[in-house]
Amino acid sequence: MLALIGENFAAGRLAALLPEAELEGVTPVSTRRASAAETVRLALAIAAATASAAAATVLLPSTGLPTAVHPTVVFGSAVVTAMLVAGRARFARIAEYLPGK
C-alpha cells in the first residue's frame, strides 16, 4: 500500500493517493470536531491553572513560607497543573503565548 501511495504521489495524483476501493467505509476525520475538542482542552487547562493559582494564593499564608517565595509557588502550581491537565506537548504550544518568549 505504501508503494502504491508513493507511485501515485510521484505521478502527481495527489487527490487520489489511494484507490477508492481502499477508502470504502472509512469516515474522514472532522477537523471541526478536532478543533472544538482542542479548544475545550485548552480552556480546561487554563481553568485548572487559574484554580490552582487561586488555591495556592489562599493557602500559602498559612504555610509559614516567606512571602518572597509566594509568587514563585503560585506560578509553579499553575504551570504544573496546566501541564498535568493539558499534557506536556500541548502545554508547550500554550507556553509560546506566555510573556517573555
Structural commentary:
This protein has helices at 2-10, 31-59, 70-86, 88-95. The chain is mainly alpha-helical. The longest helix has 29 residues, at 31-59. It starts with a helix and ends in a 6-residue tail after the last helix. The model has no long low-confidence stretch (mean pLDDT 86).
Radius of gyration: 23 Å
Regarding quaternary structure, what we see is single chain
Q: Helix fraction?
A: 55-70%
Main sheet: strands, sense, barrel: none
The secondary-structure element order is: HHHH
What structural class do the secondary elements suggest? mainly alpha
Number of distinct helices: 4
Task: Based on the model shown, name its key terms.
101 residues; 4 helices
Give the SSE layout:
Blueprint: H1 2-10, H2 31-59, H3 70-86, H4 88-95
Task: Write a compact overview of the structure shown.
By secondary structure, the chain is an all-alpha fold.
